[in-house]
Amino acid sequence: MNKNLSNLIRIVFLLLDLLALNTVYFSCKFFFRNYIADDLFMQYTYLWMACNIVWLVVSWGNNTYRNSDIFSFEKFSKNTMHAYGYFLGLITLYLFMYKQFEVSRIFFVCMLVSFGLGLMTNRIIHLGLYHYFKNKAYIARKVLIIGYNQRAQKLAEYLEQQPINTEILGFCEDESNIHELTHYPIITDRKNIIAISLKEQVTEIFSTISPEEDKYIYTLMNQADQACIRFKILPNLDHFIRRPVHIEYIDDMPVLSPRNEPLDDVGNRIKKRFFDLAVSSFAIIFILSWLVPLIALLIKLESRGPVFFVQKRNGKDGKPFNCLKFRSMRVSADADARQASKGDERITRLGRFMRKTSIDELPQFFNVLMSDMSVVGPRPHMLKHTQDYSRLINQFMIRHFLKPGITGWAQVNGFRGETKTLEDMANRVTYDIWYLENWSLWLDARIVFMTVFNIFRGEKNAF
């Protein structure tokens, strides 16, 4: 609910932050024009472009404008400060890497400090606007809930958490069906609902009683339409399914499925495949073409054995494929059964560096090119681990609805490397299923950026 409102607020505050950034930049450039040489026009133009691009990237990668936090001043401000910290670091790195030492230091410092103040000003504006608008009549709503049962209680809890003002007047139920104290009052029985709704200026009625359970609900639906009151029904699916479901339509026929899968759509699969081909081709041509001979030489100099470590892993639909890696360990008999762990004696010196920087995973771009893997997706596991965990973790095999990835949503959220406990793997599965249900091309690009960012930042689970 209110997803469009959340998206609108996200866009507005992204534009406000960009406006603050550009206003600060050009204001500082005007005030410190005497410190800026005329022949440095292009350097300052590149800096201006870099500032805008870096802010878009870090705010996106840090999920600064996420829907769940946009209505909370504390969370929104905290996310903003994290993004601002990354922004400072990357812009300073940009000046260093491109040797932009002629940029005025007083201009640069004042611009960064002023931008930080501008961000905080926007967050104060956010706080004021939120408190101003949340109680406005055209945003606030009054709700009645028909029925008093477990679904009605859960619905009331959800409505209480809505970011805009939602006033729950109470439940509508026959007194004979009430056997406990209620959090909200019992307003009326089912016969006088519309009259009470008109009197109390109710805007929405939620029914937890389906028409199949009580035919009078059909009458209430028609009466609500005549009274310009929105009427919504929460279907009771507990009789045959006890989990959240996704509803879609084949023409006018509703179809229930356990989850939403964007990649079930052929068009989305084609988009993802083009993304995979573009990224893997770039990596193979511009990185692996010279890196493979170099790493191969170093591996051969340090230890005996093949350059590549080829291991059977489970791919899409659980089918095994040959997963490629640079060999980072000494050849051992238990390679297909034992996970690498911190301080593992099998890891070579070169292997330790490759694993820390994720260089050992780069040959998997060949797997992507051959369509065994995707750039982004659930990480593939050894056959034995898949067999073991599928018995221990509910929904474990759902992650195999997708092609495995070089990186994934679980990995950029801290669940990479060794899984020491069953809980670690369960958390990884939760993130993988979330990715399956929320895939988008932008999400893939974001995960790639976060992966690269985490490599440069360093990860404690990389060993």
Features:
3 domains, 12% strand, two-stranded antiparallel ribbon, 14 helices, 5-stranded parallel sheet, 463 residues, alpha/beta, Rossmann fold, flat, 51% helix, 11 strands
Structure summarized in a few sentences:
With 463 residues, the chain is of the alpha/beta class. 51% of the residues lie in helices and 12% in strands. It has 3 domains: 3-133, no CATH class; 141-236, NAD(P)-binding Rossmann-like Domain (Rossmann fold); 266-457, no CATH class.
Number of helices: 14
Helix content range of the residues, please?
Answer: 40-55%
> What percentage of amino acids are in beta strands?
5-15%
Overall radius of gyration: 28 Å
Assembly status: single chain
Number of domains: 3
The stretches of 5 or more residues where confidence is low (pLDDT under 50) are: none
- What's the pLDDT, averaged over the residues? 84
Please state the structural category.
Answer: alpha/beta
What does this protein look like?
The chain is α/β, with parallel strands linked by helices and 463 residues long. The chain has helices spanning 3-31, 41-61, 73-97, 105-133, 150-160, 193-200, 216-226, 266-302, 349-357, 364-369, 383-392, 409-412, 422-438, 441-457; strands at 141-146, 166-172, 186-188, 204-207, 230-233, 246-250, 253-257, 308-314, 320-326, 374-376, 405-407. The strands form four sheets. Strands 3-2-1-4-5 form a five-stranded parallel β-sheet, with helices on both faces. Helix 7 links the parallel strand 4 (204-207) and strand 5 (230-233). It is flat, with a radius of gyration of 28 Å. The two termini are 43 Å apart.
